[in-house]
Amino acid sequence: MPDRAPCCAPTKLRLTHYSTSIRASGTRMRVSTGSLQNMVRVDAGAFGMGSESPAPFPADGEGPERQVTLSAFYVSKFAVTNTQFAEFTRRNGYRTEAERFGWSFVFRNHLPPQFRGPALPGTPWWVRVDRADWSHPEGPDTSVADRPHHPVVHISWNDAVAYCAWAGYRLPTEAEWECAARGGLDRKIYPWGDTLTPAGRHMCNIWQGEFPRRDFGEDGFTSVAPVDTFEPNGFGLFNAVGNTWEWCADNFDPVWHMEATRLDPVGPPSGETRVMKGGSYLCHESYCRRYRNAAREHRRTVPPAISVSAWCAMYE
Fold first, then answer.
1. What does pTM read for this prediction?
2. Average pLDDT over all residues of the chain
3. What's the pLDDT score for residue 143?
4. d(CA 199, CA 189)
5. CA 190/CA 70 separation, integer angstroms
6. Percentages helix, strand, coil for the chain, rounded to the nearest 5?
7. Cβ-contact 301, 157 below 8 angstroms
8. How far apart are CA 31 and CA 34, in angstroms?
9. Exposure winner among 119, 211, 263, 276, fewest CB in 10 A?
10. What gap in Å lies between CA 176 and CA 173, rounded to an integer?
11. What are the beta bridge partners of residue 245?
């Protein structure tokens, strides 16, 4: 399948290629001040990261599968909620980058025609909406007041880092994210196994229908779902795939990991985009299929979009 523009998060891509002789990496932060409430401990050990299966997007660099060993870490069971983020902004007077820019991208199907701004070239389902931000997800006339347990969205990488630092955490590395999402099931496609809908049960919030025209909502949702929706994986994490993308700490590169360390790996020391994992409610098998454990996406830290959120992690 040829590379296509991302379905689930708008971005402008420019890959950074590293020589395979470069092994230096970013830094895995040791953070241990946050509360352990709603956190799960992932014990030290090895797992199979990546995939040997043909990837829908070769430029993503999902493969090859490699054995990675991680030190123990804690990761949140849920994506950061609107309630949690509201407390952060209230206590600190923090303004997200979408608020400072004065706009963000919103999926067009969630907007009446009169509120649709300029579309993103190549991905016309993403449109600019003035004054759309985390507390006004579809624009200034909308609110998160009735969505306290939904994942906060319209969050840039910098916003996610700021929240985690305030709460005493950090963003997970890509390796930590993938290990946690797998829930102890090594070499499986999804957090629950290799079948997308076992016995006909929907296990995550993704697109059913013809993207981007109509989502039939057979999984119960045509937009973002609460963070505790669907069954947790083997580690007790909810919505590891689907629902919203999650930011990782790592800089992105499609080939760097081929020569990177296999012990507590992190991304390259620099780069123009950051790793996102998990896919979102906008992912569909005909277009993206990035709702798999090994799938990865990347984008610049800004501009934000309605389908991007964050998990938190800490390293003992």
1. 0.90
2. 88
3. 97
4. 16
5. 20
6. 15, 20, 65
7. yes
8. 8
9. 263
10. 5
11. 308
Q: What is the CATH number of the domain that holds 178?
A: 3.90.1580.10
d(CA 291, CA 219): 14
Which of helix, strand or coil describes residue 267?
coil
Asked whether residue 147 is assigned to any structural domain, the reply reads yes
**Alpha carbons 145 and 127: distance in angstroms, whole number:** 23
Is 61 domain-assigned?
A: no
Three-state SS string over 30-52 comes to: CCCCCCCCCEEEECCEEEEECCC
What's the one-letter identity of residue 137?
A: P
* Integer angstrom CA distances of residue 88 from 5, 102, 239, 306: 33, 20, 23, 19
The count of structural domains within the chain is: 1
Q: Chain-centre distance of CA 148, in angstroms?
A: 19
- Residue 9 reports pLDDT greater than 90: no
Residue span of the structural domain in which 83 resides: 74-315
Tell me the C-alpha distance between 154 and 147, whole Å.
14
Residues 6 or more apart in contact with residue 228 via CB below 8 angstroms: 78, 149, 238, 239
Cα distance between residue 26 and residue 249, in whole Å: 9
d(CA 2, CA 57): 7
Band of pLDDT at residue 19, cut at 50, 70 and 90: very low
pLDDT tens figures, 235-287: 999 999 999 999 999 999 999 888 888 999 999 999 999 999 999 999 998 87
Do residues 277 and 290 touch, judged by C-beta distance below 8 A? no
Sign of the Cα torsion 299, 301, 307, 309 reads positive
